[in-house]
Design goal:
heterodimer; A: 479 residues; alpha/beta; Aspartate Aminotransferase, domain 2; Aspartate Aminotransferase, domain 1; 3 domains; 16 helices; B: 126 residues; alpha+beta; OB fold (Dihydrolipoamide Acetyltransferase, E2P); 6-stranded antiparallel β-sheet; 3-stranded antiparallel β-sheet; globular
Chain lengths: 479, 126
């Protein structure tokens, strides 16, 4: 059985032997700018410091420790070479205020990355500014507004979303001032074309969709959907969170999408899940180009420059030019993988997902609501276990921790009862997939008492989620 | 494990229940709904006096699992809300049909009540 390292680790400034030293301000600074208050910084030697952080890291779990199959999050292993190159002084030592004659290489990388993303997604232009997927979505919605306003069509104030949409979609559309219309899915889990036809009107600004959708099902009617949306005068928006399933196989641009956001930190090799930095570039078709944020990266007479002279631009949406280190890692990853490599990554992601799905379903312990072929992720229901043993999705997620495995996404999408949403990604071996499958099957047969009280061998046991919401205790300490 | 469905109530497909008390209808969420939502930690109730149409958003319920909108089963005026839920939202989990009611609506058109699901049809739905 797996055992997590458990230390009773104090905070840095509580470490035994730490003495506080008052830090004197630099004499170089004028007196008026010097800090008046004394700051307490623990005075520890390197050994103590390294061991402190090492112990904390041993209690942690990340993609370098094992499989991390959070559905729709694409927690895949990120090649260390991307991180290594991004750490070069020539990249970390530059400042955005530097004269651009000294940062031509950086601009070239961004310029080239825009073109590579256009090629991968079938779009015409990109903006690399958004700091993450949700900001990309928000920018996408602002572009939709700018587009309709420019066309004297500003009565369009509705955004349509399927009931399987990622939670950020309704949030982004609401922030941009749109009214939301939720579209119920068919029993197969896909867009209901008749309902869509009825819902589309001269009020519709945009239809937001991800393909494959959050059930991992490819919307095979996408060309028809695109025709319907455009006939109604609306735009079609692609949430790129699930691009890991189709890279190199098909392109949102070819399906008729007008606006696309990508999560570079998911699919293109940046470790994520700890709060950033991320990157959520937006790609558009030519009819939306003039609204993209400034500055645009341009090339003139063999030199790269920031072009601020774009009359219809919606303006700036982020300080400076985007999260450069994430853009850089994406650029390296794409060049390393190449056209064939990206395609193969998608193929293996889909293969791994279908392999797991089939083996788990064969056990008869879990059910799957819609029987379509799955792409890079699949959603199981453990409603049967709930009926028979009162074991819920939350209990299974917690018990997986005891097996030394990261749980999948749970309770999403909401249309599936007791949902377990599993996205293994392409970077897991067959052995690791088998280990996960076996753990899920084993848990279904375990004593319900143990499962419902899990986890028992992790540093933090079952947390009181109700208590944490109603009476939060904010602390750095492990309690 | 079965969710309780009471014979004397009317139901919606979106899992609200309604109890007719003269001109007033008491509204809450079903045992099935509270069990699906899991532990409820917050309820946003409407203002008393607000006019609401059938199918419009009535209130928002947040559980440790999700945030969900509840919809008005009938049109009318909100005449009372269950203030107790502001401090003790878990009452909905403990007593969905009695102590955990949400609002009272002065019903505009009684025929809307007749169009709701009866206990048998709701049982089939869940």
């Amino acid at each position: 059985m797996y055992r997590s390292a458990i230390y009773d680790e104090p905070l840095l400034n509580e470490l035994l032997g730490s003495t506080k030293e008052k830090i004197k301000p630099l004499d170089l600074l004028p007196r008026s700018l010097q800090r008046k208050e004394i700051i307490d910084i623990p005075n520890l030697d390197e050994t103590q410091l390294v061991r402190h952080f090492h112990r904390l890291s041993q209690m942690n779990y990340g993609i370098d420790s094992g499989i991390y199959p959070l559905g729709s999050c694409t927690m895949k292993y990120n090649p260390k070479i991307c991180e290594h190159i991004a750490g070069w002084d020539s990249f970390t030592g530059i400042h955005p205020y530097q004269d651009i004659s000294t940062t031509q290489g950086n601009l070239e990388i961004m310029f080239e990355l825009e073109r590579l993303l256009c090629e991968i997604t079938g779009m015409d232009y990109y903006s690399l500014q958004p700091a993450a997927g949700a900001q990309g979505e928000f920018l996408g919605m602002l572009l939709s507004r700018a587009y309709h306003e420019f066309n004297n069509d500003s009565e369009r104030n509705e955004v349509i979303l399927p009931d399987t949409a990622h939670g950020t979609n309704p949030a982004s559309a609401t922030m941009a001032g749109y009214k939301l219309i939720e579209l119920p899915s068919t029993k197969n889990g896909t867009v209901d074309l008749d309902m869509l036809e009825k819902t589309l009107s001269d009020k519709t600004a945009c239809f937001m969709l991800t393909n494959p959708n959050t059930l991992g099902i490819f919307e095979s009617e996408i060309i028809e959907i695109s025709k319907m949306v455009h006939k109604a005068g609306a735009l079609l928006y692609y949430d790129g969170a699930n691009i890991n399933a189709i890279m190199g196989k098909t392109r949102p641009g070819d399906m008729g999408f007008d606006i696309v956001h990508l999560n570079l930190h998911k699919t293109f090799a940046t470790p994520h899940g700890g709060g950033g930095p991320g990157s959520g570039p937006i790609g558009v078709k030519i009819k939306l180009e003039k609204f993209l944020p400034i500055p645009r990266i341009a090339r003139k007479d063999g030199k790269y420059l920031f072009d601020y002279d774009v009359l219809q631009s919606i303006g700036k949406i982020k300080g400076f030019y985007g999260n450069f280190s994430v853009l850089l890692k994406a650029y390296i990853y794409i060049l390393l993988m190449g056209r064939d490599g990206l395609k193969e990554a998608s193929e293996i992601a889909v293969l791994n997902s279908n392999y797991m799905k089939k083996k788990i379903l064969k056990s008869g312990k879990y059910e799957m609501p819609c029987k379509e072929l799955r792409k890079h992720e699949f959603v199981l229901s453990c409603e049967k276990l709930r009926q028979e043993k009162e074991i819920r999705a939350m209990d299974i997620a917690k018990r997986l921790l005891d097996h030394g495995l990261h749980p999948p996404t749970i309770y999403f999408p909401l249309i599936v009862k007791e949902a377990l949403m599993i996205e293994p990604t392409e970077t897991e071996s067959k052995e690791d997939l088998d280990k996960y499958i076996n753990a899920l099957i084993k848990i279904a047969d375990e004593d319900p008492g143990i499962v419902k009280n899990a986890p028992s061998n992790t540093p933090v046991k079952r947390v009181d989620e109700v208590g944490a919401t109603k009476n939060p205790i904010l602390t750095w300490k492990m309690i | 494990m079965t969710d309780e469905v009471r014979d004397d109530l009317k139901y919606t497909e979106s899992h609200e229940w309604l109890k007719e008390e003269g001109e007033i209808a008491k509204v809450g969420i079903t045992d099935h709904a509270q069990s699906e939502l899991t532990d409820i930690v917050f309820v946003e109730l409407p203002e008393v006096g607000k006019e609401i149409k059938k199918g419009e958003e009535l209130c928002v319920v947040e559980s440790v699992k999700s945030v969900s909108e509840l919809y008005a089963p009938v049109s009318g005026k909100i005449v009372n809300v269950n203030k107790k839920l502001e401090d003790a939202p878990e009452t909905i989990n403990e007593s969905p049909y009695d102590e955990g009611w949400l609002v009272e609506i002065e019903v505009q058109d009684k025929s809307e009540i007749d169009n709701l699901l009866d206990a048998e049809s709701y049982k089939k739905l869940i």
